Every structure is written in C-alpha cells, then in structure tokens.
Amino acid sequence: MKITKRITNWLETRFSAPTYGGWVLIGVSLSYLGAAINTMAGWLYVISGVCLALLGLSVFLAPRSLKNLVVKRSPISPITAGDDISIELEIYNPTQKPITLLQISDTLPFILGEPTQEPIDVIQPEQFHRWHYYQPTQKRGLYKWQQVELATGAPWGLFWCRRQQECPAIAIVYPTVLPLTNCPLVDEIGEDDSQRNDPRGNPLQLATSGLVRSLRPYRVGDPTRLIHWRTSARYGELRVRELEIITGGQEVIIALDTAAQWEEEQFEQAVTAAASLYFYAQRQELQVQLWTAATGVVKGDVNILEALAATNPLEEDNQLPETSPLVWLTQNPLTLSQLPAGSRWILWQDTNSSAKTIVNQDHPGIILDSEQELQLQLQQPLTSF
Question: Does domain 67-174 have CATH number 2.60.120.10?
Fold first, then answer.
C-alpha cells in the first residue's frame, strides 16, 4: 500500500496519475481492444481508439492547465495567540481559456495544522479567484512557509496532477498580554537603593529630590507606580510617594533569560509575563525596553512584540546591560547574583529538580508556581529573601 501511494504521489507531482474514473476507462479500453483483436470487428477498434485518445489527451492537458496560473498572497497582519490568522490568496488565469476542476492547498507549518484546501469550479479567462480563510492559533511564534500546491483533474477528471508554486508567507503571532491592574514588581523597582541608607528599612525622609521625602494618602489621578504598597498594607489605605524614587527618568529593562535551558510551559509563561510587564510599565510612563539573548536591547512596541514572538530558549548569549535596573525573568537561580543595583526578578522553579532554590537576598523578587494563575502572581506583593 505504501509503495502504491509513493508511485501515485510521484506520478501526480511530475506527470499525471489516473483517477478512479481513469482506471475504469483504461480497463474498458483494453477490454474493447482485446475483443476487437479476437473478433476483428471494426466498431470495437473505434470504441477502444476513442477511449485511448481521451486518456492520452487527459495525460497532457491536466498539467498544461496549471502551467500558466499565477498565485499571489496578501500580507498577513500580526495577531495575538488565540486569535485566527487571516490569510488571503489570489489565483490569476492569464490564458484565453477557462480552467476547471481546480484545487489549491496552502502548505502550512505542521504546528499550525493540516494544509487547508479550496476547490475551485472554474476560473474564467484573464480573471482572478480570491480565497480568504482563517487559521486558528494556539501558540505565539514566527511562522514561515513557502509554497502553495495547485491540483487539477481537467478537462474530464480522468487524470490528476499536482504542482507546487513559490508563494512565501510570514505570520507573526504575538504573545498574550495580561491586563495587569497593579504590579509591585514594576512599581517598586529601584526602591531598595534608597532603603539601604535607613536601618529601619524606610525611604529617606530628609531627601529633597530623587528619593521619597514623605508619603501621603492616594488621590484620584495619581500614577499607581507611586503607590507604596507596604505602607498601604500597614495602614489599610493607599499611600503615595511624595517624590519620585530612583526610577524617575531612568530606563527599566525587561530581561528574559533566553540563553538558558527552560521547560516549555514555563518559558511560554515567561514570554507572556515579559509582554505583560512591558505594557504595564509603559502605562506607568516608565522608559521601558526589552532584552533577550538573541536581540539584545530592543525598543518600540512592534519590535518588542516581534522579538517575543520569535524568541526561544538556548539562544546565543549577549551581554546584559549593567547601567539600568532590570526585571530579570529566569529559571536559573544562579543568575540572580549578577543583577545590577535596583533590579527585580521573577524565578520559575524547576519542577524536575528537588534541590532547594537559592535566591538573591540583595533584590526582592517573586518565585512563581507554574500551576497557579500567572496574572494573580504578577500582582502579588514582593518578597525579600
């Protein structure tokens, strides 16, 4: 059975292969030819000759009808994971004759699903046929494919042939962005630098600029990044920092440890967290950028989303920025000791390791549980170790 399938596939892609109807007509033709030889009846020769002529024409006409077709693809707009990719193809018949019994197949990457097919009854001379379909997605990524496949049984459906055409496509599926309402990890970044000078762990009270001078009750319109969450929890009401702390006017970099080995599920969570933290920090009017091992520091919404869509573990390592505070996302606790001053971190615990996690006591952070909801964990208060 496999050998028969290989032979049929080879014939279809290089020449033409008989369909079921074609095999029936071949059998009928040979039967009439055998009867004609035995009986010497002329009308039997005529019938067998007509049948064989139809078969011969079908062998050459089927691939010929595909020869001049032109396929063009419209650009694919980026989407977010979980949405459908909108794909549009245009098939043009430049000849003076209609083309019938046509089928087009878009050879998608296997991770997106099976190739999608569209039957076409007829394309009139010098006319277009537009094919627009939607492909569901489940996972972010940068998907590329190169070819479409045209197939036909024209003119009588006796022989079937397939030909491939180059028609490159790139579909960018962005990671999911969680709607964070607050995130102490970003709001309090850099705060520990001012706390080190006060043995009570409170920000300096006598500073006149660049540090927190006092705390006051929250007023409508105050940026949430100025809320002092620990004091708010102690007093039972929101308290806001009177003066901006060390992050004011500085860059904050969301850094994803893509040079390391990751578990697949945890890495996808980390990419989602990076995208969510970036847009949350932007809403808080921080100067925020992204760093990955493959790209280095990236600026701009589109560039950052594309970098997160394409990133994978075990990328070639790049030097981490040393002058700006980081939000470091990693699965390797050993990297936490190398962070710049004022940094924060998110650590995904290795579920395959029974060893106790060692964390950095110089910078607060969050240890995430991949089995719990990511959004709630990103909004939880920081923990000092």
Answer: no
